[in-house]
Amino acid sequence: MSDNDIAQKPKVASKPKLDRPKLYKVILVNDDYTPREFVIAVLKAVFRMSEETGYRVMLTAHKLGTSVVVVCAKDIAETKAKEAVDFGKEAGFPLMFVTEPEE
Fold first, then answer.
1. d(Cα 67, Cα 84) in Å, to the nearest integer?
2. How does pLDDT run across 43-81, given as a tens digit for each residue?
3. What is the value of pTM for the model shown?
4. Of 63, 42, 61, which is closest to residue 51 (Cα–Cα)?
5. Residue 33 DSSP class
6. d(CA 92, CA 100)
7. Nearest to 28 by CA among 90, 92, 77
8. b/e map 64-102, b = 16+ CB within 10 Å
9. Which residues are paired to 73 by β-bridges?
10. Is the pLDDT of residue 100 over 80?
11. Cβ-contact 100, 24 below 8 angstroms
């Protein structure tokens, strides 16, 4: 090796630190017109809940006014909420699901 030779070290590629996507809650809003059985059927169809879990979520909304159904990524939460609301509209019920960011 001569004095002009320089030993080069390979550059270490740093991976950018990615933040986790913000999670969103899908919330069932209670109303006085949609039958309980229909709400449970929607929870089972759209959110893949069991009969018992759907009943608990529906009853929580009935007693407290709202109930968190699921927490997931924003696009999934909005899609599921819209699908559930559309089921209610097709059947003629004012079934309401909303999404909001999780804190």
1. 14
2. 999 999 999 999 999 999 999 999 999 999 999 999 999
3. 0.80
4. 42
5. S
6. 25
7. 77
8. eeebebbebeeeebbebbeebbebbeeeebebbbebeee
9. 23
10. yes
11. yes
Given a contact cutoff of 8 angstroms between Cβ atoms, the answer to whether 26 and 70 are in contact is: yes
Q: What is d(CA 11, CA 27) in angstroms, rounded to the nearest whole number?
A: 49
Beta-sheet strand order (sheet of 96-101): 66-73, 23-29, 96-101
DSSP H/E element including 68: strand 66-73
Q: Does the domain formed by 34-101 have CATH 3.40.50.720?
A: no
Identity of the residue numbered 58: M
Residue 8 pLDDT > 80: no
Write out the H or E segment, with its range, that includes residue 42: helix 36-47
Nearest to 98 by CA among 26, 22, 43, 24: 26
CA distance 56 to 69: 10
- Three-state DSSP at 6 gives coil
